[in-house]
Amino acid sequence: MQRSIAVDAGELAPGSLLLSTVVGITLATGGFAIGVGATGIAEGSTSFWYLSRASGFVAYMLLWGSVMWGLLLSTGTGRRWMRPPLLLDAHQFLSTAAVGFASFHGLVLMGDRYVSFPLLAIVVPFTGSYEPLLVAFGQIAIWVSVLLIGSFHLRRLLGGQAWRRLHHASFVAFCLACVHGLALGSESATLWASLLYMGTIAPVIFLCLYRVLSTPRLRLLTP
Predict the structure, then answer these.
(1) 161 exposure class (CB count in 10 Å sphere: 0-12, 13-18, 19+)
(2) Chain center to CA of 56
(3) The whole model's pTM is what?
(4) Rounded to 10 degrees, what is the CA torsion of 196, 198, 203, 205?
(5) In this predicted model, what pLDDT tens digit does every residue of 66-82 receive, in sequence order?
(6) Any residues with CB less than 8 A from the CB of 132 and at least 6 apart, and which?
(7) Which pLDDT score, from 0 to 100, does residue 116 have?
(8) pLDDT of 179 over the 70 cut
(9) One-letter-per-residue 3-state SS of 20-77
(10) What phi-psi label fits residue 126: left (phi over 0), alpha (psi between -120 and 50 degrees) or beta?
């Protein structure tokens, strides 16, 4: 028997309002940074590059939190200390906030005078000239996350089983974000960044293994 998540869509309304606020503020800030860079007011400044790097780490941590929350919900582990509707609401909030910061992470580079990504290279994978494959990993991770956020609002139309299967793509987004950050991040070689990546990847692997090993079908095969 598969685990099911019985949640009324109305219970997600307060969270949805908060997510919209976070994404709106993030994109508005990104637009302001782009405008400053385009006018040349901050010419010679590395602020946009540092903003992109910092928001990239924030987006990664939010995505990790979303994956962890989803695993806590699907494995039933988190239900011991939080109701499933609250877990799902937190999962949705973290997913949307991650997309907001990831969008800022890319858009703010349009204001940087050194790399200066055009909008097409930020939105469409494989269209940029700078490390197109590694950059595309991050872009695909964002688009997959956007797809999953949209599925929250189409859950009744998709059906519970199809919705759960679609959410397996969240692991793809997380893996792509990991590769993107490790391969392109200038801090990847530092001790604190290595500890951060190891400290986020390890619990995801642990909960994934726990979820697989605790499925009823597999337990029937275990003596």
Answers:
(1) exposed
(2) 10
(3) 0.77
(4) 140
(5) 898 888 877 766 666 66
(6) 125, 126
(7) 67
(8) yes
(9) HHHHHHHHHHHHHHHHHHHHCCCCCCCHHHHHHHHHHHHHHHHHHHHHHHHHHHHHCC
(10) left
